[in-house]
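> example.struct
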């Protein structure tokens, strides 16, 4: 069976496990875990922010970012198929008391005009942009469009959070450092358990003041850990060994879908299609209504994607 449902299916490599075993650790809640501290320092620098915070999941990083930068009763504005609105179980309303304004965007992008015309957006509110944008098929935000959207949010007095769960995919695909997007945002989330192939872990980067407030959120949400250096070591290993190789995932996704920008191939859905593909030995995932995804990741080979493409042809589902 070729399993292309999600890049969360990566497993830690032997070398990553060795790095985890060798990690120097301390109590993270006392801020004394040297490996966590090193990861936070490196991530802040990489993303062009003052400080960073290590948390178990990117969902938690997003939710902490919302809570640390908004006031209850204010508005969150995001593209309608953004992770924070669709896959985080109502978190913006439950954890931060935010009203949701979801807007339809091309390729997951909001225009400055859309943000400017949001009547309730203002101080205490937040705009969330996603790069790469999952539900549009892992699309990359062009830098100039991203900056224009950020400026529009700031002109309204709102904060801008970048859900960069797959920002390193965007960075490798565009040939730009991740800070090129991240430094314009007030806060940014990175996920280590997708293409970076760690078993878990995420980081929130922002100003020193926001990260101090985020520490409170980490305790509130139960994300304060202890000898978390064992997992931070996996993330440090991934920064050194698993970033450039994302280009291989992107090239493999393109063998299935020539329009793939990163590691998602988009497949038009049809009734019973997922089951028929499964019968032929291929597992694909749900992308959005009407679309499926085949996602490449560490451990998926050229031969796997060629066979996946052959199965898709056989079942007559390629464009
Ligand atoms: C997966 C994902 C998240 C959440 O990551 P977890 O670590 O699974 O909580 C957030 N945003 C986007 C865009 C994602 O794809």
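> example.seq
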């Amino acid at each position: 069976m070729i399993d292309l449902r999600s890049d969360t299916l990566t497993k830690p490599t032997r070398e990553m496990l060795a790095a985890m075993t060798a990690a120097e650790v301390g109590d993270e809640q006392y801020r004394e875990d040297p490996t966590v501290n090193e990861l936070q320092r490196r991530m802040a620098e990489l993303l062009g922010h003052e400080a960073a915070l290590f948390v178990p999941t990117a969902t938690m990083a997003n939710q902490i970012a919302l809570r640390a930068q908004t006031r209850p009763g204010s508005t969150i504005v995001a593209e309608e198929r953004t992770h924070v609105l669709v896959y985080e179980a109502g978190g913006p309303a439950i954890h931060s008391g935010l009203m949701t304004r979801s807007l339809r965007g091309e390729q997951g992008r909001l225009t400055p005009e859309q943000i400017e015309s949001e009547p309730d957006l203002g101080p205490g509110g937040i705009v969330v942009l996603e790069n790469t944008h999952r539900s549009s098929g892992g699309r990359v935000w062009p830098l100039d469009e991203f900056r224009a959207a950020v400026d529009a949010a700031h002109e309204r007095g709102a904060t801008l959070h970048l859900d960069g769960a797959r920002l390193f995919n965007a960075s490798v695909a565009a040939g730009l450092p991740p800070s090129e997007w991240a430094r314009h945002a007030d806060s940014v989330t990175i996920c280590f358990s997708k293409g970076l192939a760690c078993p878990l872990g995420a980081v929130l980067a922002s100003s020193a003041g926001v990260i101090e407030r985020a520490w409170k959120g980490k305790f509130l949400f139960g994300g304060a850990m202890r000898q978390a250096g064992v997992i931070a070591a996996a993330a440090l290993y991934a920064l050194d060994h698993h970033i450039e190789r994302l280009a291989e995932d992107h090239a493999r996704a393109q063998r299935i879908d020539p329009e793939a920008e990163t590691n998602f191939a988009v497949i038009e859905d049809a009734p019973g299609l997922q089951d028929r593909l499964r019968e032929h030995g291929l597992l694909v995932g749900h992308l959005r209504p009407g679309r499926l995804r085949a996602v490449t990741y560490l451990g998926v080979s050229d031969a796997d994607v060629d066979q996946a493409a052959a199965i898709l042809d056989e079942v007559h589902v390629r464009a």
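> remarks
The first strand starts at residue 2 and ends at 4.
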